């Protein structure tokens, strides 16, 4: 989930869904409420831990953090040097996710088909929106955290891609994360010179505020999703199928990056000197070159990853002690 949430167009919620722990994830987050707070402040830590399904949440969040921060540097390299193949693998994962959800969905009435169509239209529409300019205002960064975390809780709705639309993907998921990574490395070396680096301190502040917004969004969204899953489960699953299907347009592997330009045709850059992504120009694959067939191989790899996650999730459920 941590790796998936880092990539624009890919939803960490899809991983939770396919691996079979999506509902447990949502219902566990719902337990972070007033009752849990009372148990905690009354030092009833054992009851608090059991009430919030602490072991599950702790292992999940730890795995996400390790994956998220380790993959930050790796993905930067892979997307720069092997962009087509990275997008192909994620395109395959989305296809595999659609298959996984559809094969177990058996309530194909008119209402749910409408939800699928609406979800697909919303997903496609999001992919066609134009990104805004980067904004490091802390109130806006907090809002980005609330909205960006949707990729964890809503399968098919990529929080990373929404951050691109807000203009803050590079700031929040690349620059600030790398600033934290570099700061930890400095602390290990007992090098405190970063405290005089205004840009590093600014990025660390941005990351803290973004994290607070993400936690806020995670808890509030989980309560909403818990309610709709309980009362409108099939309609919710139908909408998720639509969201995921619509997201295929975002992760289409064969595309060029289009950058914002000024009146004279010069590429505009953000405050950190990075070109500002405007959108993607998608095209059909060229079957006369070898890279196209390698890309198709990676699509199959992506599908295989999802099928493996499905198999592993089912195996875990079967072997879980009662």
UniProtKB/TrEMBL annotation:
- Coiled-coil residues are none
Taxonomic lineage: Bacteria, Pseudomonadati, Bacteroidota, Flavobacteriia, Flavobacteriales
Tree of life domain: Bacteria
Keywords, ordered alphabetically:
Membrane, Transmembrane, Transmembrane helix
Q: What is this protein called?
A: DUF368 domain-containing protein
Mark the transmembrane ranges: 6-27, 48-69, 84-102, 114-132, 161-181, 201-228, 235-254, 287-309
Xref: InterPro entries:
VCA0040-like (IPR007163)
Keyword Transmembrane assigned: yes
């Amino acid at each position: 989930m941590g790796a998936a949430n880092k990539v624009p167009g890919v939803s960490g919620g899809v991983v939770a869904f396919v691996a079979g722990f999506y509902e447990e994830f949502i219902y566990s987050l719902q337990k972070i409420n007033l009752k849990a707070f009372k148990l905690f402040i009354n030092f009833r830590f054992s009851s608090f831990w059991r009430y919030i399904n602490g072991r599950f949440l702790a292992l999940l969040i730890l795995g996400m953090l390790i994956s998220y921060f380790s993959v930050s540097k790796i993905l930067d390299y892979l997307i720069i040097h092997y962009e087509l193949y990275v997008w192909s693998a994620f395109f395959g994962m989305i296809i595999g996710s659609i298959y996984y959800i559809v094969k177990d969905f058996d309530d194909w009435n008119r209402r749910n088909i409408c939800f699928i169509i609406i979800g697909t239209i919303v997903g496609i529409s999001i992919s066609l929106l134009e990104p805004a300019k980067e904004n490091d205002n802390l109130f806006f960064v907090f809002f980005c955290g609330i909205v960006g975390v949707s990729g964890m809780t809503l399968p098919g709705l990529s929080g990373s891609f929404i951050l691109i639309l807000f203009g803050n993907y590079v700031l929040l998921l690349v620059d600030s994360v790398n600033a934290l990574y570099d700061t930890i490395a400095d602390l290990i070396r007992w090098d405190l010179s970063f405290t005089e680096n205004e840009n590093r301190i600014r990025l660390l502040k941005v990351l803290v505020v973004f994290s607070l917004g993400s936690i806020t969004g995670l808890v509030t969204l989980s309560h909403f999703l818990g309610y709709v899953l309980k009362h409108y489960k099939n309609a919710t699953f139908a909408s998720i199928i639509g969201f995921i299907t619509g997201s295929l347009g975002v992760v289409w592997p064969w595309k060029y990056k289009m950058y914002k330009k000024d009146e004279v045709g010069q590429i505009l850059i953000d405050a950190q000197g990075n070109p500002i992504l405007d959108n993607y120009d998608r095209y059909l694959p060229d079957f006369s070159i070898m890279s196209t067939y390698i890309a198709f191989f990676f699509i199959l790899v992506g599908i295989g990853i999802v099928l493996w996650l499905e198999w592993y999730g089912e195996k875990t459920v079967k072997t879980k002690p009662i």
